[in-house]
Please model this.
Amino acid sequence: MTFGCEMIVLSYTKYGESAIILHTLTRELGRRSYMVRVGKGGSMAHFQPMNILEAEVTENPKSNLFSARKFSTRYPLNGIRNNIYKNTMTMFLSEVLYRIIKEGAQEEGLYEWAVKQILALDALQNDYSNFHLRFLAELASALGFTPDFDDIAPFAGERMELVEALLQTTFSEAMLLPMTGEIRNEIAEIFLKYIEYHTETSVNIKSLKVLRELFA
Model:
């Protein structure tokens, strides 16, 4: 069976000389991986982290691995792709989703929420250094366990005031909360540990180190 599918790129893994396994979050199928033929020297521009694509997907009755082709970009995301800071942030956000959401999992409304997050980051002209922190705070809610004071306090420690501010203020106000790079790193770790606890996963986000260096 072949059908159209909208998807967010989380990551990909090389598969031989002429293919990749594309890991995505989709509207129709949740977290899903696809075999994609790319060929030597083929363009990989479509497969940058958090790109939103439309593709033709074919289900394989003999395997859980679907195949995908005929990709087109749903949104150009020029505000992200022309900015090294935002590009690095999407590496982090996509890795978080890839490691936390299990293959085959479907969370109602998660795809739509993720699309809104990507478009919001793309549109921001400035004051986006806190974006990944607000993303993590809202991701917990999108996964079904909205943080409250008693629930997150054991993870927040002395940063509870800032954590509460990120959770309770408007998006615009959250972007303007004054923080050093060191404090941002601490709060990112707090939210990751909180999400790990509730999803019963062990998350080792490699791109967090790059984000730390960029927003130090």
Q: What stands out?
A: The chain has nine helices and five strands. The chain has two domains: 2-73, 78-214. Strands lie at 2-15, 19-26, 30-37, 52-58, 66-73.
